[in-house]
Design brief:
The chain is about 20% helix and about 45% strand. It has one helix and six strands, in the order ββββββα. β5 and β6 form a beta hairpin. It has a single domain, classed as Thrombin, subunit H, CATH 2.40.10.
Length: about 120
């Protein structure tokens, strides 16, 4: 059995965003989960490496200006059609952290209510 290394709960979500990679390319991405310290995105980008910096604008439903977070790529899982990336976030300001966790919690709560 694999030991869980994460310190914080990850909220599954299905939202979109925009990622800016080290080479300044920008692309639409799908955000699959998020936590206080990281997130998982799905990208079509192939020319990336562990440790590369990345910025992600997260399109939170109902928010006119998407929050911008930055971090480093910590793991890469390549598939033929897409690439999953684990992003370790840099320090977040309190407002952004609260907003992301509120969004993640609301998605989680809605899924729990519909599963019962």
């Amino acid at each position: 059995m694999r030991k869980e290394r994460r310190k914080y709960f990850r909220f599954d979500c299905s939202c979109f965003g925009e990622a800016r990679f080290q080479n300044s390319s920008v692309e639409k991405v799908s955000i699959k989960n998020l936590s206080v310290q990281g997130l998982k995105i799905v990208s079509g980008h192939q020319c990336i490496s562990i440790g590369d910096p990345v910025e992600v604008r997260i399109d939170i439903p109902g928010r006119q200006i998407p929050p911008l977070v930055s971090g480093q790529i910590r793991w890469i899982h390549e598939e033929p059609e897409s690439t999953e990336l684990g992003i370790q976030l840099n320090e977040l300001n309190n407002d952004t952290r609260r907003e992301l966790m509120d969004y993640g919690f609301s998605v989680w709560r809605d899924r729990m209510q519909h599963s019962h």
